[in-house]
Amino acid sequence: MRHISALVLALCAFSAAKSFGEEPSLKGLEAALSARDSFVTRFQNGDGATTATQVAQEVTKTVVMASIGALRTQGDTALANRFEREWNEQHAKSLSNLTLVTELDALGITVKDLGDHRALSTWLSNFYEKLRTRMGAAAIHQGLLGDIWAVNHAIPVVIAPRSGLWRQDQRDAGILLDRDWVEYRKHFIPLVNVATYYAASFACKRYAVPAGFPQNQCAKAAGLLRHVMGRYISPKISDFVFKMANRQPVQWTVSQSDLRYTSAAELARALGQ
Fold first, then answer.
1. Distance between CA atoms of 259 and 240, rounded to whole angstroms?
2. Is the model more confident about 164 or about 35?
3. Residue 97 has what pLDDT?
4. Residues sharing a CB contact under 8 Å with residue 16, sequence separation 6 or more, in sequence order
5. What is the DSSP letter of 13?
6. Which of the two residues, 245 and 207, has the higher pLDDT score?
7. Which three-class secondary structure state does DSSP give residue 118?
């Protein structure tokens, strides 16, 4: 696994110091893999809940800005500018101080599945509805609506693996119920999947698209890495974060085989190149 310094999702694996092959597609795919691996390494070397909170901050901004960009692309410039202004003036600063443990308790959040509780942000909920109304099928096709919804509903649980009223009453007696780590997975995995997709997609596009590699191939590669993350990697990371936060014995169990694709050539073959 590549041990690369952690960067924010929008810049992950963009280091000019890393040398990629000459083929544009391989440059992009190697960048996508590096973004994925850097993301995994952050959790391996971090302290669990703090890393999860940082990821929550980063992916929320990334998805919001991607959605605003999509509005501009379809010509809805005035609305895009309005949302960008609201985000920068009212919400970005509060997101940078995201801890929310006491806020979660105040909200009385109870959780069974993703979406079965109050969302993180009323503003994000309104943004979701406006995007759905204005972009319709285009937003669904791009995955933006699902990503905004997942981020908005997953974060309150992901950043509070030990605290918050989503936990079972027995937590104070030191009893770790199986359903607690299962419920944590149901929120952690969707959030990490979204984060992985954007990190890999942005990294691929930065290196490959200027050299003529199609953007849709970067999206396909990011989609594959998102699938692998959700199926093989993020469940293990979720358990690692949850157990660490709850002071349970924990070991890092993500293996090289869990990554599935470890070279640009392997990823290219999976894409049919």
1. 16
2. 35
3. 55
4. none
5. T
6. 245
7. coil
How crowded is the C-beta side of 139, counted as CA atoms within 13 Å?
25
CA distance 65 to 97: 19
| Tokens read off for 71 | 């509005």
What CA–CA distance (Å, rounded) separates 38 from 158? 20
Q: At what angle do helices 24-45 and 234-245 cross, to 10 degrees?
A: 20
- The position carrying tokens 């699902």 is 146
- Give the count of alpha carbons within 13 A of 231, CB side only: 10
In the 8-state DSSP scheme, what is residue 11? G
Among 1-5, 88-92, 154-158, top mean pLDDT goes to 154-158
- Note the pLDDT of residue 106: 36
pLDDT tens digits for range 183-220: 899 999 999 999 999 999 999 988 877 767 777 889 99
What letter does residue 88 receive in the DSSP assignment? I
Report pLDDT for 93: 63
Residue pair 203/31 in contact by the 8 Å Cβ criterion: yes
H helices present in 49-177, as ranges: 49-73, 77-86, 92-96, 101-107, 122-135, 137-142, 144-158
Alpha carbons within 13 angstroms on the beta-carbon side of residue 133 total 7
Residue 47 to residue 24: CA distance in whole angstroms: 36
Q: Rounded to an integer, what is the distance from CA 238 to the centroid of its chain?
A: 13
Query: How many other CB atoms are there within 10 angstroms of residue 105's CB atom?
Result: 13
Token duo for residue 178: 């199986």
Token pair 């649980």 is found at 157
Could you read off the pLDDT of 41-61 as tens digits, one per residue?
999 998 888 898 889 889 999
